[in-house]
Fold this sequence. Notes:
6-stranded antiparallel β-barrel, about 15% helix
Amino acid sequence: MTQGYHDKTRRLLRISGADRQDFLQGLVSNDVKKLGEGAIYAAMLSPQGKYLFDFFLFAEPEAIVIDVAASRAAALAQHLSMYRLRADVAIDADERKVWRGIGEAPDGALADPRHAAMGWRYYGALAVDPLPEDHFEALRMEHLIPEPELVENDTYILEAGFERLNGVDFRKGCYVGQEITARMKHKTELKKGLRRVIVNGEAPFGSVITNAGKPAGTLYSVVGGRGLAHLRFDRATGEMQAARATLRLD
């Protein structure tokens, strides 16, 4: 059975012009040359290597299309425009609907490149059996896939699991923030990162996690007693606290 829903939290930007591939290649964390194989997941970073935007990209005959959170679409368009300079590139809104679904993919749908459990994405008009809009939340917990857990100008994408989620390419060459990301990959051992936790009790999104009174991280989304947390590995042991909840590694 094919099931899906119109994801109203997403918007599309259309990048056209003769220089569109080279333009994006110098800005995003993944290799735009791989678009011939399907959709890719990528991020744009600050010069300090911190997360600014994440999105999906897919290629069409005359454009590369970006699927981004609706709340961030205008800011992303503005940010891209800053780098356009004299490049033959146009950045426009694309009004097609974004669909997410599971089961047999409709013609023209693209697999979510982060993980097979996240189903497919489709752009345009579609008629399918309805799928609850929260269907993917528990799957995000299960497979450590961040969405609201990505914090602008704070998150490092390797701590958020972008390598595991096929969101970064270490062979593609330079892009904004690449040097910091490569150094974290090759010259340091990650001491913090995203982990799944078991949560007993209540704690709002963004609650500070402590262990024996010392800061240990931040708790983000919680679904059905499981949550995603950004943790200091040296303090992510035993029982931890966040607001009125107790936590432990899952």
